[in-house]
Amino acid sequence: MDQQFMRTMESLCIQNEPPACVTACPLHVDSRTMLKLVASGKFEDAYSLYQKNVPFPSILSKICNSPCLSKCRLSEIGEGIQIRPIEAFLNQYADPSFLPKVLPEKRQKAGIFGSELDSLSATYDLRRKGYQVTILDADAVLAKNLRAFNEEVLPSVEIENAIHLLEKIGVKIQTGFEMPRFEELSRYDSGFFRIGDSEFQCIYLPPFSGELSIDSITRMTVTEGVFSGSASAGYWVDQMSDGRRAAISMDRYLQKVSLTASRENEGSYECRLFTSLKGIQPSESFISTDIKRTGQADIIKEAARCIQCQCLECAKGCEFIRHYQDSPRTYVRQIYNNISICTGLRQKNKMINSCSMCGQCEAICPNHIPFQKVVREARETMVATKKMPQSAFDFALRDMAFSNSEKFRLAKVPVDSKACKYAFFPGCQLPASNPSLPQSKPYFHGFGMK
After folding, report:
1. With 90 as the cut, is the pLDDT of residue 180 above it?
2. What gap in Å lies between CA 384 and CA 425, rounded to an integer?
3. CA dist., res. 22 & res. 270, Å (int)
4. Same structural domain for residues 179 and 239?
5. Residue 448 confidence (pLDDT) above 60
6. Domain identity same for 196 and 295
7. Which of 152, 315, 327, 335 fits 15 for a cystine, CB–CB 3.0-4.6 Å?
8. pTM here?
9. What is the pLDDT of residue 87?
10. What whole-number distance in Å separates Cα of residue 71 and Cα of residue 77?
């Protein structure tokens, strides 16, 4: 078994793929795990998980556009899970003294124009990486668009707290800077962009009202070192994702490494995970339209509606997969590693030899993974290279030889009869396929005899 074969087999298994609610979210909040924690009453842990994916959780949880809702599998048969109100509920478990860890300060400087969610998010991520970051805004009061929300929807204190947080971790804020004309942005001989009295190695600009060519992966514009977003106004979670993705590129740009390597599945993308809804009953949301009337009990009930999407279709028809309690993706990796060991114990030999190679898993797998072929190749490879100890198969071979010998044959006619009309050959597959069959439901294959 070579590495390419292993990786091909691994890629076919979708069990470890994220669910649709995660892939629909451009920030990839692990909603499945978060809801499981909430349903168990572990609110602090759930909030910590949410906070890892979201720069300003107290803001986004109140205004998120909820792209996860329409992609929830439950929405196909009833009402999808209302995740945003659950996230808003979790904010009460935030630590008011929280400060994100900031890496040692670097010499490179980044200028961030604007102060909406995309710009604030880019600022947050770049500062955490240790860069010297300055927000440049025309208005004395930052985040003007966010402040347009009703106080009952997004209290202004949440916006102030976010800005103060940035100041506490060392972000500089300069107001009175009008957005520069894009065509005027150029790098000086010194290698810097000069804005007022400041110089920056790279710049972030919020989305322009006119058309601007922006690389869909790196978010860099046609001018090297200038990055921007593309999210439309009002799509708050997309704006936050824009800022985060731009910050990744700006960090790589300043480090002089590839801007495009390993950038698959950033932002929203299609879910590969298959989850059967067979046997799942439609359900209605416990979240009231008046969010203030939704209490802790309803939040827990809503989270408990989550079906914890996973595939494991193969486990439904394979005792082997159920017994080892994992997915073919994991088994393939374990088998490959088991074969690759030069010296020492091969702890997966028992697992490799336990599969009956019946092909049931391939028949019911959504991607038709031929796992039995992996097992067969592993056995053949290990026997050929003398990595499979004789004890693993010696008894089975001797038992098969005995079972096919004269000593294992029995032919009897019914009592008071000299001959019989039929002969029954049960073989080994009858009890192997259904161990209870000979006792509970006699089944005979007959061949006419003269």
Report:
1. no
2. 34
3. 10
4. yes
5. no
6. no
7. 327
8. 0.82
9. 96
10. 12
| Residue 178, in any domain of the structure | yes
CB 287 within 8 A of CB 72: no
Those residues whose C-beta lies under 8 Å from the C-beta of residue 1, and which sit 6 or more positions away, are 335, 336, 339, 374, 377, 378, 381
- Tell me: do 188 and 124 sit in the same domain: yes
The tokens 């439901």 sit on which residue? 441
Strands 172-175 and 198-200: unpaired
Give me 341's structure tokens: 């060991």
102, part of any domain: no
Domain that includes residue 419, residue range? 412-448
